[in-house]
Amino acid sequence: xxxxxxxxxxDHTFRFxxxxxxxxxxxxxxxxxxxxxxxxxxxxxxxxxxxxxxxxDQTRKLWPHLSxxxxxxxxSLFGDCPVTCARPDGSHLYAGxxxxxxxxLDMDTHAVQWAFxxxxxxxxxxxxxxxxxxxxxxxxxxxxxxxxxMGAVEWVCDFDSDVNSLAHSDGFLYxxxxxxxxxxxxxxxxxxxxxxxxxxxVQVALGKTALFYANNWGSIQTLDKDHGTQxxxxxxxxxxxxxxxxxxxxxTGQNAMVATAERCEVCCPSFPVxxxxxxxxxxxxxxxxxxxxxxxxxxxxxxxxxxxCVDVDGSRIFFACSSCEIHHVDxxxxxxxxxxxxxxxxxxxxxxxxxxxLYACDSTGAVHKMVL
Length: 372
Prior knowledge:
Blueprint: H1 7-14, H2 19-26, H3 30-38, E1 47-48, H4 53-62, E2 68-73, E3 83-89, E4 92-97, E5 101-106, E6 112-117, E7 126-129, E8 133-137, E9 142-147, E10 153-158, E11 163-169, E12 172-177, E13 181-185, E14 191-196, E15 201-206, E16 210-215, E17 219-224, E18 233-235, E19 238-240, E20 242-244, E21 265-269, E22 285-291, E23 297-303, E24 307-313, E25 316-321, E26 325-330, E27 336-341, E28 348-354, E29 357-362, E30 366-371
Parallel strand pairs: 1-2
Antiparallel strand pairs: 2-30, 3-4, 4-5, 5-6, 7-8, 8-9, 9-10, 11-12, 12-13, 13-14, 15-16, 16-17, 17-20, 18-19, 21-22, 22-23, 24-25, 25-26, 26-27, 28-29, 29-30
Helix pairs in contact: 1-3, 2-3
């Protein structure tokens, strides 16, 4: 057998392997394990090993300095359907599916703690985790407060259209609707104020005293969080209530703006650029960080695909593309840290960074959990 070749020959061969191949080779036999672990493995790209939970834990102990990706699947008894939003909470994961099911799963065992159906209309979810409960919004036009323990619905607040975005802070919930509404709700489900825009609100983001929201006409408005009144911001051309976005910005659902709150910046993708005269042209998209007040572009990153969703967490930005890839970019410089390819062809509906983990939901009904 080939594995009985001289050790020095295997040692030479292993040095040409990347981290993923070295981990795979280390599972063949003990001699391969010792040779593989002696090689340099500097890559921090999450590795997809395709192992059971038990075997993955064993592999992590052997390779503690490497990052592994784990796949959590919502059990098929609820129907094979895309997961459109997932949010972690300690050792649990809340996942909303396109068939209207909301489920709570144990992240260690992947067992379902509870699951409830809210109708086929609830096919694109927004989930916010609070200390004692979770808040959800969806395309059925309802915002719900749900208990964590049993999944009981404590109250429902009706919107007149899709709930496109939710943000939670200091015991209050803020929602953006497809009918142009921006609403503040208290812990009892009472609407405290409602601001109306002339067109669809695609995302809300919270600062210390202000709320920013983006509409699909390509502008960002600023509201006072306490009263819902419009605020004037000091722009490049004087005070204004409206901050116009660059004309190339793409604002549709999950790939809406991600504002870095008080600094009034956005990290968002452009419209795909393609040569209309070239039928084989691969669309190119530019993701960039721009200060909306000064107009200064800090950096831009080009990808040969369309950007499906974006998330900013601290000094990191993550975005998923139609090429079945997830990119990790440094927020300050725009330098690409790593690129991870999904284990099978699918569409990523949502990416969410939380602490030292990244969660990505895709159209196969999987939630991919990566150690950062």
